Amino acid sequence: MADGFVDPAVLDKVKVGKGYIAAKYGFRNHWYPAILSEEIEEEQVVPAQICGEKIIFKRIDGKVFCIKDQCVHKGVPLSRKVECYTKNTITCWYHGFTYRFEDGVLNGIVGVPESNVIGRKRVRTYAVEERKGIIFVFIGDEETVPPPLEEDVPPGFLSEGHVLRGRRQDVNANWRIGAENGFDSTHIFIHKDSILVEDADLALPLGLVPLHNGAFETTEEDGGPKGVHDIFSPEAINPVFEGKIDGETVRMGRPEGKNMLPQTISIWMPCALRVQPWPAPDITQYEFYVPIDGERHIYFQFLGKTVGSVEEEAAFDKEFKERWVEKALIGFNKDDIWAREANQEFYADDTGWLRESLFEADGNIVRWRKLADEHNRGIQGPEHVR
Hints:
Elements: H1 8-13, H2 18-22, E1 30-36, E2 45-50, E3 53-60, E4 63-68, E5 89-91, E6 97-100, E7 106-109, E8 128-131, E9 134-139, E10 162-171, H3 175-183, H4 195-199, E11 207-210, E12 216-219, E13 227-231, E14 237-240, E15 242-245, E16 248-252, E17 264-268, E18 272-276, E19 284-291, E20 297-306, H5 310-330, H6 334-348, H7 352-355, H8 363-375
Antiparallel strand pairs: 1-9, 2-3, 3-4, 5-6, 6-7, 8-9, 10-20, 11-14, 12-13, 13-17, 15-16, 17-18, 18-19, 19-20
């Protein structure tokens, strides 16, 4: 491996999905959620790392800007010691090089005001969009015109009247492990003792067995989001509530729950999951597995609900904070975090992609890998994270 990236010897042996396997640091020229709007106040500077690229955000007159977190002079991180002498700029703590957030231009050097490099050097800037209380950043080639944000989030995520509440945390596992954990239909087994099962009166099986290839559908129209769906209809999938070993029942699921959720789970480029509905019949859960580097990802969890009034939104906000954060996003999904971090060691040296033994129920994972391989806009490589 070079600098933590995928070993070329492994890629030579991969038969399907070379691009996906190579994307240890994520896909290039895509939008990613980076931070929540509530995490950056006016004139506050917030550092982040997305797909291995170190960046800094600043809110100026309400608008969020983003530049590379690296001084062009000696390459030190600007965020190591934040010094902003004007609201529109940041000054390097080392030698006083000062950059505008709007265009990244070096517009002064504190203490050397007549330098010839002023106005001739710049740090790179990143496109930013703030929607639904989330700061999105476009990680890609600076000369590339970003596509509409709607192409890189699940359908309905940005719809009018659809309100979102969420949280984020870092997870010590590669982003692909996070994505495949979320989309893995048989991983439901690890949730069998979750606090959410009784709280939400869920009918929770021990496994979900696809009956044919029609259990998976692909969305890949031009100009729209690209994704793969699990269809949880009786004709497409068999929920298994009775677990047996050698013909003997050893564990029961929970068939008596009144809420047989979800109806569909789907995964979308570049790194998002949609569980619909979940954890209640009128709520949708979204997850993003945003690469930090080759070994970690930011786990964004959002619950979305369509509301018709300010009062309904306030009620949802209260329910989110008082019930769903503890019972669903933490209580239920802590099992997923534990599983991803346990799985990281197997894939860390890249040979796990060759040593894994997939089975019939992993058909949706295979479909996802193929779609990601065909529809990514580029692979994040070593040359992009220096």
